[in-house]
Amino acid sequence: MSQRGRPTDFGTVGLLCYFALDEEIVQEFPNFIRVYRDGRVERLAGTDTVPPSTNPETGVQSKDVVIDPETSLSARLYIPKTPNPHRKLPLLVYFYGGAFCVETAFSPSYHNYLNSLTSKANVVVVSVDYRRAPEHPLPIPYNDSWAAVKWVASHSTANGGIRVGLERLDGVKLVGIVLIHPYFGGKDPIGCEGSNMVGKAVCDKLWGLSSPESEDGCDDPFFNPGKNPKLSRMGCRKVLVCVGEKDVLRDRGWCYKEELGKSGWGGVVEVMEAVGENHVFHLVDPTCDNAVAMLDRVASFLNEEDNA
Ligand SMILES: *[C@@H]1O[C@H](CO)[C@@H](O)[C@H](O)[C@H]1NC(C)=O
C-alpha cells in the first residue's frame, strides 16, 4: 500500500502543503526585499531608523510631524542653525530613494545626508515619509508625495513636477528640481544598459514589484518620463540631474535631460556626472571628494541668485 493511500495522512499532508505555500517566496531581490505568497513582505535593506535630533556637528535640528493621520503620512523637518531667524530661507521638499519599496525618511543615511545639506545650503527641509510598495503600490507613493507638497504649500506664509504645472499651488513657487540618481527606465535598453542586461533586468523587475497594475509596464510615464505627453508642462524653470558614471541608471539621467530639452518645456536642465562612482555613492561614503562636490553643487543650486 502506498503512503498516499493511507486516508489518515491526508489531513496532515494537506496542512503541510498549506503552510509550505504560505512560506513560499514569490519574489526575491537578494539583500533587498522578499515577498511571500501570502503577501507578507520582508525588507532586507533600509530598515534601520534614527530619531530626530539636534545634530552636534552642524546644529541642525530635526523634528517629525504627521501630515495625514488617516494614512500615517509623515515627514521629518530640518531647520538650520541660522544666524538670522527672520531671514527667509529656501525650502527643499525631499523624497528618499529605494525603488519605492525600501528605506524611509528616517533611515540613518538620508538623515545624515539631510543634516549635511541643511547646514551647507542653509535651507529648511521637509523629508517626506511616503508609503511604500508593494503593500502600497504606485501611484500611492506619488500621491503621498503630492499630498505632502500641498501640505507644505498650505503652511507657507509667503505670496511646487509636472503636477505643479497642471494644478495650481497657492503660496509656493517651485523654483527647481534636483534628481539624484533617478530611478527611471523604459522598455528598450539605452546606452550602458545594453552591456548591463542583468542590472537592467533587476531595475525592470523592481519596477514591476512597485507598479503591478501598470498598463504600460516599463514605458509607464511614471518610470519613463519621456513617454509623458505633458512633460513640457513641468512647473519649474530649472532642473539638476546628478548621475554616477558606473551606475546602470546613468543614461536614464542623461536621457531625461534630452527628453526635457526636446519637449518644449523651455527651462534649463543640467547633468552633473560623478566620474567612477556608482548608485548612491554619496550615501555610502558621504565624505569622499565626489560626494562633497555633489553636496556643494546641490547647495549652490538651492541658493542661486535667480531663485528669488
Ligand atoms: C492618485 O491621485 C490621482 C490623481 O489625483 C487619483 O486619480 C487617484 O485615484 C489616486 N490614487 C490613489 C490610489 O490614491
UniProtKB/TrEMBL annotation:
Pfam families: Abhydrolase_3 (PF07859). InterPro entries: AB_hydrolase_3, AB_hydrolase_fold, Carboxylest/Gibb_receptor. GO terms for molecular function: hydrolase activity. Residues 92-282 form the Alpha/beta hydrolase fold-3 domain. Signal peptide: none annotated. PANTHER family: ARYLACETAMIDE DEACETYLASE, CARBOXYLESTERASE 12-RELATED. Belongs to the 'GDXG' lipolytic enzyme family. This is Alpha/beta hydrolase fold-3 domain-containing protein.
